[in-house]
Write a structure and sequence with these properties.
Layout lengths: L20 H9 L1 H9 L4 E5 L6 H10 L7 E6 L2 H10 L5 E5 L11 E5 L10 H11 L5 E7 L5 E7 L4 E8 L16 H4 L7 H15 L8 H14 L14 E6 L8
Parallel strand pairs: 1-2, 1-4, 2-3, 4-5
Antiparallel strand pairs: 5-6, 6-7, 7-8
Helix pairs in contact: 1-3, 7-8
């Protein structure tokens, strides 16, 4: 039975159309996410902390139906007024809204998206929040814990399975940055305080900045081409950059969690 009260605190609720489009596109093209959604008997997805309006929950459902047409999405919020408003406004089949927090309202989803939620919590709350969500996953399930700016042009997220973090992804509109380390301000809560000398995530961002400067000549072909060249330089230097399943329009850099996990 789920707890009588949702676990967590009410957050600011900022949202907007297409704010999470970059993470949505990554989910749709991620081989691991696609496998999880396609293999599960019940294609349930939880969008945790969707905010003051259910816009991004509805967008998530539309995009994930490219992966599996019968996907069901449940948007969870701790604020009863937000839940009530979403329930009254929504007419989309296969999308529901309910009161819930990190306990996931008793659901056992294949995928949980928690974007711009833990950023508003103290850093010491992250391990317990992760653990609560991990315990509720269906077999093979995954969690995306991420942060983005107000327009969704700069984003970072961690992918987790039921046992541990799997990877870190940096994604952006390359026209909206001067250098890759501009994304540091949007690192997930678990990493943002570790962007200091001697920590792996700081080393990654520094290496990305150096590679970005090295391939400045590719800028004549546009910042997307320059970003791709940067990732090739990093890979050549031994950075374990994941190769995308297919080309997408966003500037994306994904590395294993083991290469950025805090030390000390």
């Amino acid at each position: 039975m789920p707890p009588a009260r949702p676990v967590g605190a009410i957050t600011r609720g900022t949202t907007g159309h297409n704010r999470l489009r970059r993470s949505d596109r990554w989910l749709v093209h991620s081989s691991r996410v696609r496998t999880a959604l396609q293999a599960g008997r019940d294609p349930l997805v939880v969008d945790l902390g969707y905010g003051a309006k259910p816009i991004t929950t509805l967008e998530l459902a539309t995009r994930l139906r490219e992966v599996r047409a019968d996907v069901r999405v449940v948007g969870l919020e701790i604020d009863p007024d937000r839940v009530r408003a979403a329930q009254e406004a929504s007419t989309t089949p296969g999308v529901d809204f309910a009161l819930g927090g990190f306990e996931l309202a008793g659901h056992r989803p294949l995928l949980v998206r928690a974007f711009n939620v833990l950023r508003q919590y103290p850093v010491d709350a992250v391990p317990d929040a992760w653990a609560q969500m991990q315990r509720r996953l269906a077999p093979g399930g995954l969690i995306v814990d991420g942060t983005c700016d107000e327009l969704g042009r700069r984003c970072c997220w961690v992918l987790l399975d039921a046992n541990a973090p799997v990877s870190l992804t940096l994604a952006c509109d390359p026209f909206a940055i001067e250098r890759p380390s501009d994304l540091a301000e949007r690192l997930p809560k678990a990493l943002i305080h570790h962007n200091v000398e001697g920590q792996p995530v700081h080393a990654l961002l520094s290496a990305a900045d150096q590679a970005w400067a090295t391939v400045a000549g590719h800028g004549v072909f546009g910042p997307r081409a320059r970003w791709r060249a940067m990732t090739e330089v990093l890979a050549g230097q031994g950075v374990p950059v994941a190769t995308p399943r297919r080309s997408i329009r966003d500037a994306v850099l994904t590395v294993p969690w083991s290469s950025v996990a805090p030390v000390g």
